[in-house]
Amino acid sequence: MKNRILVFLVFITTILKGQSVDPETFPTVTSGVGLKYLYTNTGGEGKVAIKTIMDSVKITDTVSMTYADFYTAITGGNLVVGKTYIIVDFQTIYDQMDFDAGGSLKPTLVTKTGATEQIWVLALAPNQIASQAYSATYPNDKIQYDWTYNTTLVNGSPAKGRISERIDENNNRTDYDHREIKFIRYDDGAGNFTVINDNGNASQEFLTFVQNFTGGTVKDNWLGDFYSIGAFFGQEYGNNVFSGNLVISNTSSALFYSNTFSGNVYSNTFSGIVYRNTFSGGSVYNNTFSGNVNNNTFSGDVYYNTFSGSVYSNTFSGYVYRNTFSGSVNNNTFSSNVYSNTFSGYVNNNTFSGQVSNNTFSGYVNSNTFTHTSLLGYCTIASTLNNKTIDDITYPILFGNDYKKEILKGSDNKDYIKTFDGTIDQYILIP
Fold it and tell me: What are the angstrom distances between the C-alpha of 292 and each of 96, 275, 287, 288, 326?
């Protein structure tokens, strides 16, 4: 009997210890969940912090992997839409440009490898990522990442993708990783490392935007598309933003397009096509443009430049003076003063809305409009003037007044100045 009573008491005690509190009476926790504990229902034998459970589960929207694993996943269509993939071993790997004494790319280039930089990309589809990427190393930079770049352009060395656009925290923008890619410059013999071609002297490596990425003087850098479309197109400038005060002594031999300059641009040589660029800040002076120049915007002064190719469909809103235009000048807009320039090619279909003075036109001048100028005002030139001098002494009727005049070609194939005296049209022959 005693044994039965002992067993019963043990049984009752166990039940009372396990059911001593009704959990439905507990208050609801609304904050600080991670600081709370869960207790076992076995007589208080143990407890566990909720944070410990959260840490052990590790529910996350990111996946860390190497470039090799990421490449396999995206080419196999195995990305998870909405997840962010962290490429933990990304490095900028490139064939460093180096030119011989004649300016040709050397047949043997050195493949360079930059520092490791974590790249974060967002999966939009099983085989597609968003164009905007992020850098854990430089979180303030805006970058685009090209995962398809798995071999370098010249040597074919293994690569881990590439940064196809980088806008750093100083608003310097290039189509390549200007934090890592460096350019070789040779000693000019006086201790200045400014020579692009190998002259047999010592060399050093330089970043694009000086060593601290603050902009400043950009000198003698072949920029842009070599690292995005390859050496086939030559040494090019494309889609760059130059936010420093000076852009000086650069040479482009192929395309030069869609660039933005906010400072002065001088003593550069542009021997290829120059188009869709914006010169928004300082002056453009003492440059040589030997290729076509079209669809550009010049909002500062343009002077002491040589344009030997066609110049067309540009907008010049600053002073244009002491330039030499030896090619065709067509369909441009000059909204400020134009003076002391030499135009030796065709000048057609342009609009001059500022002062036009002391210029020399030795080629054909056709279908241009000169309006609202203080010197040569309300004058439309619609004839092919060739090697003729028209000044305020020889033809004073053209200058110093604000009524409409026309220079046109008659049916006899001669040039005339046409005016209206209030009664009839007058025609003055230009011999």
Answer: 29, 8, 14, 11, 11
The amino acid present at 313, given as its one-letter code, is S
CA–centroid distance for 204 within its chain: 26
Q: For the chain, which residues make up each domain, given as ranges?
A: 56-201, 263-431
In eight-state DSSP terms, residue 6 is: H
Pairing state of beta strands 379-382 and 193-195? Answer: unpaired
Q: Look-up: residue for tokens 């002073």?
A: 319
The full DSSP string for 376-396 is: S-SEEEES-B-S----TTT-G
Query: What is the C-alpha separation between 121 and 85, in angstroms, rounded?
Result: 5
Instruction: Look up residue 163 and give its two tokens.
Output: 């940064």
Q: What is the pLDDT of residues 300-335, one digit of tens each?
A: 899 998 998 899 988 998 899 988 998 888 888 888
- pTM of this prediction exceeds 0.70: no
> pLDDT tens across 91-107, in order?
999 998 888 998 788 88
Question: What is the rounded distance in angstroms from the CA atom of residue 223 to the CA atom of residue 196?
Answer: 13
The C-alpha angle with vertex 110 and arms to 104 and 116, in degrees rounded to 5, equals: 135
Q: At 126, phi and psi to the nearest 5?
A: -55, -20
CA dihedral of residues 26, 30, 31, 33 (deg, nearest 10): 50
Report whether 286 contacts 269 (CB < 8 A). no
For residues 99 and 85, what is the distance between their CA atoms, to the nearest angstrom?
Answer: 38
One-letter amino acid for residue 388 of the chain: K
